[in-house]
Amino acid sequence: MLINFGRKRSRYEEALPNIDIFVCTADPMIEPPAMVINTVLSVMAYDYPPQKLNVYLSDDGGSDLTFYAMVEASSFSKIWLPFCKKFKVEPRSPEAYFRTAVLEPLEDPVKAKERSSIKKSYEGMKKRIETTTKLGRISEEIRKQHKGFREWNSVASRRYHQTILQILVHAKDPKAVDIEGQPLPTLVYLAREKRPQYHHNFKAGSVNALIRVSSRISNGPIILILDCDMYSNNSESMRDAVCFFMDEEKGHEVGFVQFPQSFENLTKNDVYGSSLNVEIHGFDGNGGPCFIGTGCFHRRNALCGQKYSDQECKENWKGWNDIKMEETASVLEDTSKVLASCTYEEKYAQWGNEMGLKYGCPVEDVITGLAIQCRGWRSIYFNPERKGFLGLAPTTLLQTLIQHRRWSEVPSLCLLSGIPLFPKISSAWVLPFAFVIIVHRAYSLGEFVWCGGTFQGWWNEQRMWLFKRISSYFFAFIDNILKLMGFTDSAFAITAKVAETDVSQRCEQELMEFGASSPMFTVIATMALLNAFCFVGGMKRVLMDMQSWFSNPFTLQILLCALLVIISLPVYQGLFLRKDEGRMPSSVTQWSLMFAALACALACY
Ligand SMILES: O=c1ccn([C@@H]2O[C@H](COP(=O)(O)OP(=O)(O)O[C@H]3O[C@H](CO)[C@@H](O)[C@H](O)[C@H]3O)[C@@H](O)[C@H]2O)c(=O)[nH]1
Ligand SMILES: [Mn+2]
What we know:
Oligomer: single chain
InterPro entries: Cellulose_synth
Keywords: Cell wall biogenesis/degradation, Glycosyltransferase, Golgi apparatus, Membrane, Transferase, Transmembrane, Transmembrane helix
Shape: elongated
Membrane topology: Multi-pass membrane protein
Family: Belongs to the glycosyltransferase 2 family. Plant cellulose synthase-like E subfamily.
Bound molecules: uridine-5'-diphosphate-glucose, manganese (II) ion
CATH architecture of the largest domain: Alpha-Beta Complex
Pfam family, one: Cellulose_synt
CATH superfamily of the largest domain: Spore Coat Polysaccharide Biosynthesis Protein SpsA, Chain A
């Protein structure tokens, strides 16, 4: 393979395709602008013809602080890129480079001198960005540096603003050169339009906006998608990745090339188990790896829904490069804005389904990759010795747990936070779900009745099935663990055999007996309340959207939630309506209300 790369390199140098690089950021407080621009600078400095590189930053935070950092980065790139290329430095994220480079002694006095002067400018820039970020607003002095800051005069909040599109470095601009007169990559800042009444679909929404905007500005046939914390650690990986697409025999089959997600901040034994590499390796024998959201080179056509076909896909890369930027930056800005508006996707509903990254699932990346494979494309897993990208893994247990919660969210909470999980009722794909939910249960009812039970009996059994799983089994599990660790002795809590008169009376009436204040009741009550809250939240969403049940993506989720509410009716009675001794103790009511409200608040946040 490596020998091949060398030969291909010279032959294809001229014909190398344009590449559009997307970096996503969402919040200047969680994702510091100083970190974001390190990622941006590292990809601007790829060992690749700069006029063929186009770097786009999507800022879902819609923050002038991030924009300011990008303005700084665009001028710093004028000294950073020539330095990287002259001395072939690695890695090309300035922060990572200076962190490692100080350890390496320098024989070359020219390099030593340049390095220390560039280090000084880098540190100056970093300080300015960090001070501004800490201050939380842009000073008048800085505002004068770029016309783009004026856009923020009409920004109400990060959730309510117009599209902001600024081409910071434009290939057509004669001033877009570094200090040695070499061209710079195109650099674009985008904060897509946000309005509270339109769902923005998180990262998938922002990547799709970038796909459209970039198609107007540079239209590179290959797209690299990156998270803002994932800098390029290997300046050659761009050429390597392109080789897979350009391979004369098999290249036309390749839909995407996925690099592993490697982290620079893992502890030696990876306490939180963040490394995902084993799982991805395994997929290679199965049509190729899935797309994991970052460090992935996509064929634009495949990402935009094209089906693979042997003949058509042997495309000519040269033909692709024909998109020339004839218009000036401001004309491009004005005409491309509409592509990032909230209403655009209303008109073109394929976005988020057949086109671009898929919506409706917090692990949009995996299902998008599977869809591309279903359209006939192959994917490649590429793990060079020098890691292609390095990112940041969660550093606390809570962050790790929250990340995994997003990857495996519980259905009811998804309803509350507006994430559809199932297909619409109008789609044929609802059938497998309907089958599992209806047919499987119907079978169990049939069985129950056949054995001499009643419908009511079956219904109660379903309820107890639920209660046992969330309380008894859950606590038994904890008991066992404690026992194994030697904290408790085995105990046999003997089941009561005789009951007081009023208790047995209620038992006779089939009224559920709560009475005691047990943590198991708190869990059951919390779940019941949570489902009720989520049901109300889901109904509110449907009524506000005014969509029909048939075309609403939440219908199945609401039905499921409604079912859980109905099955929990005795719990609500016990909590709020009953006056007898068998009702829920008020302490259980208080705690469960608090827990359920807390869970809802977390989900909404
Ligand atoms: O509304 C949003 C939310 C997130 N992001 C960006 O999405 C990326 C990933 O978010 P992060 O909070 O870092 O999540 P992780 O769990 O670390 O991300 C992993 O899991 C995601 C799917 O859940 C994948 O998309 C990512 O590529 C993968 O690194 C970051 O660059 C964010 O800035 C947005 O652009 N808009
Ligand atoms: Mn991340």
